[in-house]
């Protein structure tokens, strides 16, 4: 029986996002005055955890941040939003990964530069099995891959639902997929030998992923499940900022899946539809947090 307030464990990247709203992306040696700015904890797993908590779940983020003042600020931001952080790099005094983001005001398109998870190689914590057992669902963004594979293996042993956020193909992804129950990937996720969303869905099915989908911004989300397939329309919205929309989609999806008991293919499609509605709402305002204050 699924708990009334589901618990989610989110394994992956946390960054400090510095987001600037600009008229246009600057050229070489050009300086701009931004219209607005947001500084917040970010990263796919972190943003998904924030969304999960906002929708009423209990969220824990398993990641690497460190004790540098910028990292302390990122953790404080997450705590204020209801996310419990397990920091596996707590002794590191180096700055956390910083994502520099430029959002073009007229289109909502973003340009991002970040070191991501390249500075940390994480060892699974001694209490990993307990962390997994305490949750209903575990979500992975593909960063900190060795940790992700260990957590996914523990989740499979414990009978917990596993969800994969496939933003892009990363080294080691092939080791993670056999432990994944649900994979929702962006159109930029290209496993070896694939070229189209149909190729990607077929690849995931061959790796044993029972339910999978490929999202493409405003395009319909193509999905497949045992003996069923279909597409879910993304609700139309006037886009202000696409940053983090996929992360919100995954956090909302994890929340809806955690509330389902013995889901059918139709339940999966409905969870995707509900998650897409939340993600579309997030695109209607600047930054990764404003949507939570507006609805």
TrEMBL record:
Domain of life: Bacteria
Coiled-coil positions: none
InterPro entries: Carboh/pur_kinase_PfkB_CS (IPR002173), Ketohexokinase-related (IPR052562), PfkB_dom (IPR011611), Ribokinase-like (IPR029056)
Domain Carbohydrate kinase PfkB stretches: 10-290
Pfam hit, one: PfkB
Keyword vocabulary terms for this entry: Kinase, Transferase
UniProt-recorded name of the protein: PfkB family carbohydrate kinase
Organism of derivation: Streptomyces hokutonensis
Phylogenetic placement of the source organism: Bacteria, Bacillati, Actinomycetota, Actinomycetes, Kitasatosporales
